[in-house]
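In the design runs reported in the main text, the only information available to the sequence generator was the tokenized backbone. The following block is the verbatim input for one such run; it is reproduced so that readers can re-run the procedure and compare outputs position by position.
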């Protein structure tokens, strides 16, 4: 079986009925909808699905069509940066697929989004044609409004497919191929947004912080908190516990406690095993020691032998 994962992000986190209609595109043969999450503060939804690469690509295209119909960025407000109704669609290779397969699927989908919906599309991470556009923040700089008001025509900012103008309500979309990442947030017991910005700047790689970490501060004043929102793009390089400890220690140095942390979407067992090893100070531990993992391995072996 050939499997690939898609984790499309949509600019809607306040209307469950809209997110449900988008998610329905992933309920189809050869595609499995694993998770759907929405956040009102970010005004953003994240879908996680796996399946046959071609079926998954078609599901993403249909989901884009629903988002294009129901999301109007001229009326959208939220804390998370965004440039499209369907903001980003990363593909991650799983069983029986390679990074090259994910790149091929991403590039094909980019063309289909333009052809069917007239939404210009950028290619990022492993799917990027331009090495200067591998990183999403460089593509999304200024968001929908900046691109709509002319930034899209600037040197180096024309979309890879379509354009040169944004879709009037759905903006633009970025499609990419990458390794698995973990979306990890630490909520601080303070309303001091400037403190959050200082910590986010300190922890992110681009400012000299932890490698493979992207971070921003989010104002969650209504809940009495500030969030340090992070994407950990390689947890083998910077594990979850290391990112947490960095933020917690930086906050403690200024007299602020951590209220809670949260993982957005799904996370691999290996990344969580690293957290357990650190918390328990276990010298040697592997995911093969997890009961459910061992059971699945045995059942899979028995099924293979029976066939």
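Verbatim output:
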């Amino acid at each position: 079986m050939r499997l690939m994962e898609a984790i499309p992000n949509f600019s809607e986190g306040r209307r469950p009925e809209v997110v449900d209609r988008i998610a329905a595109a992933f309920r189809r043969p050869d595609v499995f909808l694993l998770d759907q999450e929405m956040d009102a503060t970010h005004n953003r939804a994240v879908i996680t699905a796996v399946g046959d690469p071609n079926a998954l690509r078609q599901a993403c295209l249909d989901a884009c069509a629903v988002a294009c119909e129901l999301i109007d960025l001229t009326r959208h407000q939220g804390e998370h940066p965004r440039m499209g109704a369907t903001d980003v669609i990363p593909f991650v290779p799983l069983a029986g697929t390679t990074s090259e397969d994910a790149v091929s699927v991403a590039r094909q989908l980019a063309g289909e989004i333009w052809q069917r919906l007239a939404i210009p599309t950028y290619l990022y991470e492993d799917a990027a044609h331009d090495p200067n556009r591998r990183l999403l923040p460089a593509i999304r700089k200024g968001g929908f409004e900046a691109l709509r008001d002319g930034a899209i025509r600037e040197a180096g900012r024309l979309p890879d497919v379509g354009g040169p103008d944004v879709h009037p309500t759905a903006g633009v979309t970025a499609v990419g191929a990458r390794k698995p990442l973990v979306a990890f947030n630490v909520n601080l017991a303070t309303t001091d947004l400037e403190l959050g910005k200082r910590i986010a700047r300190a922890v992110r790689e681009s400012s000299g912080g932890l490698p493979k970490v992207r971070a921003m501060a989010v104002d969650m004043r209504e809940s009495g908190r500030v969030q340090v929102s992070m994407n950990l793009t390689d947890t083998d390089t910077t594990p979850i516990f290391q990112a947490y400890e960095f933020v917690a220690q930086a906050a403690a140095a200024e007299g602020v406690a951590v209220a809670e942390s949260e993982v957005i979407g799904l996370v691999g067992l290996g990344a969580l095993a690293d957290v357990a090893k650190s918390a328990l100070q276990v010298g040697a531990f592997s995911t093969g020691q997890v009961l459910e993992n061992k059971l699945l391995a045995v059942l899979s072996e028995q099924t293979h032998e029976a066939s």
